[in-house]
Amino acid sequence: MTKITAIRIAALATTSQLVLGLPALSGAIAQEAEALPPGEQAESDSAMKLNTIIISARKREESLQDAPLSISVLDSEAIVEMGVKDISELSNFTPGFTMEKFGGRRGAEGDTSRPVIRGQANILGETNAAVFVDGIPFSGSFLSYPFASVERVEVVKGPQAALFGRSTFAGAVNVITKRGTNDYEHNVTARLAQDDEYEINLSSSGPLVEDKLFYFLNARKYEYGGEYKNTLTGQTIGDESSWGLNGSLEFHPSENVTMLLSGGYNEDDDGIPAQISQSRLYNNCFLDQARQYYCGEVVEFDEVTLNTDGLGSEVGLDRQISRVVGKVEWDIGGSGYVLTSNSGLTKSESVFGHDGTYLGDLINLYGGIFTRVETTDQEEWSSELRLDTPVEKSLRGTVGLFYYDREKEAERRRPESTATLTDYGNAYTENWAIFGAAEYDLTDRLTARAEVRYQEDTIGVDYTTGTMYETTFDSVTPRFTLNYDASEDVMVYGVIAKGNKPGYINTASSLPENIRYADEEESWNYEIGAKTTLMDGRLQLNGAVYYIDWTNQQLSDSVFVNGVPQSVVTNAGEAAVKGVEVDTHWLATDHLVFSLGYAYADAQITDFCDPTQGSELTGFDCVNSDGIQGGQVAGNQIPNAPKHHLVVSSEFTYPLLRGGEWFVRPDYSYTSKKYAQVHNLAHTGDRSLFNLKTGVRMDNGVTFTMFLDNVFDDRTPSTLVRYADLVNLNTGPNGNPALDNVPGTTSTERAFLMPLAKSRQFGIQLSYDF
Description:
This protein is mostly beta strands. Helices cover about 10% and strands about 55% of the residues. It has six helices and 44 strands. β31 and β32 (about 565-590) form a beta hairpin.
């Protein structure tokens, strides 16, 4: 689907909403106008305002419209209204942010997630953006986290190293969980949908001791039966199952002290994910080269071929995640000087059995080592101590200390066996930092802010054989902000910030020490933005333009060791990102609201001499910093990073005669194509998602919803990875001579790995608040 077609569909959806809603709406407005005198009518109109959203992305609570940074926010109310069930679905409707279910809910290799913000995607190494839950780093896979316990998700765009720390090179995903208040609030929600999907959430919150001790508790059970057929077994795959308990206790021993204990335990038991490798038999370009290639939009598949029988009882994902957070805030003597201590521990254990060929492993290649089990055991601890000065002062600031420790043991083995195929060792990280911020009101309208962080990051890996690799990096990451209140409702700002990403270890023992480690990546980010509130608070129009100068980019390279090529990660690339972001919300009437968001991220490689480009595709035309010949890919887009991301939403409500309201809500998302690799040849194609919901909200607390997700049944894969065909070995001759291998070269040619998209799905949901 082309971009123009997608935009036309969005326009059609919005127009249809207006056509359906405006006749009833105009009647309601007319009745209200007749019932109210002119003076009261004007007063009623002026009372309509968009809700004020409070955020904490700068380590303090403030209005979204008062914060001089680009940030997208979904609070618990918006999460419910949109029907968002996990972080991947949230990213579909958050412009400039993507986070796919690649590898199912396990996520990327190593049981982790790879958020992409502002086009700064990566394939190897640490993620370019990090997830935080209640201020605590969450580096494992976040794809199954229960959203019924989430109060707010803040997607903060641009480097956030000064206040958030490591792995916030492109931005941060700041998740705040729910807490109790003095009001008792209970909820039961049940959702039932096609493909044997159901979810039940039980939530309760309130005071245990009024004004002193509050609780929140959520229990969740989720099942999904999958939808795609495995041709080898005839069974449906892609099933998912979860249960969990999450909650918090908040204690106020005095008016100046707040203590918070939060955490949870969640288990996932998923089948093998619905993923397929587009085999080499589809390759359509560079057929005269050793490994051939595929050019254009990849094929959409409606079934998979996976060897699940060879996994025995270890099919799919078995994972347990537990976390605990302890936070204390002390307003020292009521002076406004607030001392905050925030510490947390997250532990996860996972076993993942899968067919690594993603084509059925029919030939038992290399003795069947691709039918395998990955085990990961991770524990991470972080602690922050921070002092904030009074916010009402013209000069205010923050100073703090931070410590982070992570250990991750991983191995690859045969199913139902202790025979190790690959020992990844015990990878560890230790990070400590000192940080601070100072903000000064130069005038009653002009404010300057400076932030800085100094950190030391030690990464290492040790093996049972006694081999050990370790190195330490240090960095200084400043951030400068200047914001000006042009009026009470208009604020403009400028930001200059430095981004920093952790280094990387190439662990192959045969490598020379001069390429053992990849240095930390760096970037300088320049941003100008505006936040405006118009029409007496009924319209918010926010926007930003930015430029990112990205150096020391970690990319896959190839070096020769004793005449044998080996894949390594080196600081071989440079890139630049130019972008525009728009976020607008309009409360047209008491019954009709519109939202539109758009992100443009032109993420281009400015210098990368890629050995694969030279050896397998266009030929050699450059030499990289390691003295290896390659092909120059400057001007190409960074892989797995869409250039365009458009979101259009609206909701129309109409009062019911006996109380409550009827509602209808369309949500539309368009994401442009993503390339598999730096060559910019194979890509996903453009993706359009259109969700539709309608139902009633009753005054007695009952809400009934019918939904149809992916109305147009778009099966475009959310992401794409260059892979190898490990089943259809090219030993020739083939039925099609054009596919015959180049004599004397490899028999494993290029393939492309992709997750199969969730198809159109109808469901209902019943919720009761009491």
